[in-house]
Amino acid sequence: MEAPHPSAHHSNRHEGKRDWFGLFSSFRHVSKHHEDSLSLSSTPSPDGGLQCLGNRGGDEKLEDIVENRNWTAIQPSGFRPQARRNHATTVIGRKMIVVGGETDNRKLNDVHMLHLGKLTWSELGSSVITKPSQQLPPCSGHSLIAWGKTVLLVGGDMDLDTDKVTVWSFDLETEHWTKVHAKGDVPAARSGQTVSRAGSILVMFGGQDARGRMLNDLHVLDLKSLIWLPLLTSGKGPSPRARHVAGMYDDRYLLVFGGSTKTKVSNDLYALDFETMVWSRLKPGGCSPSPRTGSSGVLVNNKWYITGGAQRGTRVAETIALDIPKMSWMNAMRSSLDSVASNQGLSLVVVQKKDRTFLVTFGGSGAKSRSNEVQVLYIASGEQREDNDIFHGSNGRTSPRDPLVPSAAHNAVSPTNQRPTVLSRLLDSPSPEAVPGLVPLRQIHSQAHQSYKAGEKVLNDNVSYGEEEPESPDAHDTVTKEPQSPRPVEQHETSVDADVKCDSDSQSDEIEDVGSEEILKEKLALAVKKNLLTEAELEAVQQEKDELEKKLNLATRSQQSAEAKLGLVTREVEGLRRKLEASELVQEESNSLSNIVHSENLRLEHDLSFLKAVLEETQKELHSTRGVLASERTRAFQLQVELFELKQTLQS
Predict the structure, then answer these.
(1) Alpha-carbon distance 416 to 428, whole Å?
(2) Are 202 and 142 in contact (CB under 8 A)?
(3) Bigger pLDDT: 337 or 341?
(4) What is the dihedral of CA 424, 426, 428, 431, to 10 degrees?
(5) Where in the sequence does UniProt note compositional bias of the Low complexity kind (predicted)?
(6) CA Rg, the chain, in Å?
(7) How far is the C-alpha of 341 from the C-alpha of 364, rounded, in Å?
(8) Which position has the higher pLDDT, 161 or 14?
(9) Is 604 part of any domain?
């Protein structure tokens, strides 16, 4: 773990809103660790179902699972972990690390490693003696991120006396846990959140707090400075949810799918662009996935694979994939209900070796009990990469013959532009090339101004319009009009005045020619028709201008209302600041009075001690005086006795 940066971070939330894209982009070309080579194999079962492959004493490896297109159960040797769900896994080299989770009656804090080359289980840290401060509390619903040769654990349901998210680091070499002391605006403690990594930045979204409330806040942790920061976004984002799936695509777009909200289990899909910090709801084509919670997903090149989960106690059997360039859902695999891939609260990781890609799933809650089995699915290379130059409509079908799409959109992607076509055009692309069902925010805000200027130009130049282009709905099913493109006037077309002048000259020169008179009448009729058409078009342009002016006035009023609200909030903040200053003055006065009272107490305690000493001396003197008085009383009694005897003697 790298040490925190010594400089303090002072950032304004509003000014830093767009700076995060630069921070994310700086990590796009970070050199990636070369993974150790991995050999996986299996043999397809004749019936097409799941096939269990053992390792026969640890010598056999999975070397040819590429022929099997189903989820294949494997039986690694060694000490198998306890059955669990809501755990977390990650991959470092050829090692799959499993941490925590929950059994039927308790949470776990153990660490297990599955060596994917040798197919052997082993437990880490069990024989290492550690201090109580280096012992991970039992946890579930946490997130696990690989960072170099360490594993980072973020959040989760832990029995700790804190209301903030905690971060732990596990060193694979020393097998020690260390609590990471992060600074900044640390988020509230939660479980069921998602944490995605982009370079040295962790992005955390959603989850459920200790009171059971669903969250949809967004926070980032810089692993170099160890500072938490909240992110401010615009647009209608996902509703508060937990146990959803999220992934960081191209270190720029955060994808969020499904999960449990306050009232239902969801199957909606959202994307956050870190360049504009704008949420958009995506509506891909293809087969719509069923709602699910407790599922797991991984990104493999341009496809997002999601498996497992449940809806109202019913587990989901299909493994789905989102083709991001085509923006289309597809069923990658349908497994049986006794498969690990259909469990709830399972984990899913991706393992790659050159051109071979494997999905590895572990654990989760099955139909009757929790599981500790491992299954592998081979992803063929043809399924990993698809052409990024084909666009799909809302029904998921390609439209290569769409006349509005420029021909360049159907050509191969340029080697210098490796960013996927669809999501990279969410911001700046014209509407014909935009993703179906989504309009960029910048386009929405600039269309009114552009249309207004285009309308003024048309009115001044008296140019007629061509046919209106189709409209493109935005992410929330609203329709935004595109400004119409003026159609250039052809050479053979002339204005009304020019036609009339030409016709007058023809009458003077050829007044006796009947044929010319007929031609003149036809030209006049055509000129009148064109004039009427132009007037109708000008009237339509004027109506559109009036409508745009109304929208502009409405936007101005909304801006004024927002400014008024901002001023009110500013005044409230100023009032709170004055109250805070007054409370600080009162606090200072109370501190001064407290000091005075303390000094008076000390003086009184000193006087009291002096009086106690005087009282003790007085009591001693009184005791001595009482002794003398007693002796004098005894002597007086003796004198009375002697006096009485003397009287008796005198009388006798």
Answers:
(1) 18
(2) no
(3) 341
(4) 120
(5) 38-49
(6) 41
(7) 9
(8) 161
(9) no
**Closest C-alpha to 495, from 466, 465, 462:** 462
pLDDT of residue 55 exceeding 90, the answer is no
Q: Do 294 and 286 meet the contact criterion of CB atoms below 8 Å apart?
A: no
The 8-class DSSP code of residue 116 comes to: T
80-137 tens-digit pLDDT: 999 999 999 999 998 999 999 999 889 999 999 999 888 999 999 887 777 777 789 9
DSSP 8-state secondary structure symbol assigned to residue 208: E
Q: From the centroid of its chain, how far is CA 473?
A: 25
Token output for 416: 């210098």
Distance CA 292, CA 344 (A): 9
Predicted local distance difference test score (pLDDT) of residue 488 = 36
Grouping H, G, I as helix, E, B as strand and the rest as coil, residue 92 is strand
> Of 28, 30, 7, 9, whose CA–CA distance to 221 is shortest?
9
By residue range, what is the domain housing residue 533? 439-570
| CA 250 to each of CA 24, 348, 385: distance values in angstroms, whole numbers, following the listed order | 10, 20, 14
pLDDT bin (cut points 50, 70, 90) of residue 64 is low
Distance CA 39, CA 226 (A): 37
Find the helix or strand (DSSP H, E) in which 306 lies: strand 303-307
- Residue 341 sits at φ, ψ, to 5 deg, of -65, -10
Residue 128 lies in a domain: no
- Those residues whose C-beta lies under 8 Å from the C-beta of residue 210, and which sit 6 or more positions away, are 163, 189, 190
Q: In this structure, is the dihedral angle defined by the CA atoms of residues 91, 95, 99 and 103, taken in order, positive or negative?
A: positive
For residue 483, which amino acid is it?
A: P
Q: What's the domain count of the chain?
A: 1
CA distance 359 to 378: 6
pLDDT at 51: 46
Whether 476 is covered by a domain: the verdict is yes
Location of structure tokens 């988020």: 187
Strands 183-184 and 227-230: parallel
Q: How far is Cα 545 from Cα 483, in angstroms, rounded to an integer?
A: 11
Residue 618 in any domain: the answer is no
Distance, in Å, from the CA atom of 451 to the CA atom of 443, rounded to the nearest integer, reads 11
Contact 365, 79 (CB under 8 A): no
Buried b (16+ CB within 10 A) or exposed e, 423-454: bbbbeebebbbbbbbbbbbebeeebbeebbeb
Residues 152 and 167: their CA atoms lie apart, in Å, by 7
Residue 42 φ then ψ, to 5°:
-165, 170
Q: How far apart are CA 554 and CA 544, in angstroms?
A: 15
The model carries a pTM of 0.56
Cα(584)–Cα(578) distance, integer angstroms: 10
Torsion on CA atoms 331, 336, 341, 345, rounded to nearest 10:
110
Query: How much is the average pLDDT of 280-289?
Result: 94
Q: What is the mean pLDDT of residues 345-365?
A: 89
Read off the DSSP letter of residue 144: E
Q: Which two tokens stand for residue 356?
A: 């071979």
Q: Which two tokens stand for residue 318?
A: 């299909």
pLDDT tens-place string over residues 504-535: 444 444 444 456 667 776 777 777 777 777 77
Contact between 146 and 98 under an 8 Å Cβ cutoff? The reply is no
Q: Give the lowest-confidence range in 99-108, 324-333, 484-493.
A: 484-493
Q: Sign of torsion, CA 35 41 47 49? A: negative
Q: What is the C-alpha to C-alpha distance for residues 307 and 342, in angstroms, rounded to an integer?
A: 7
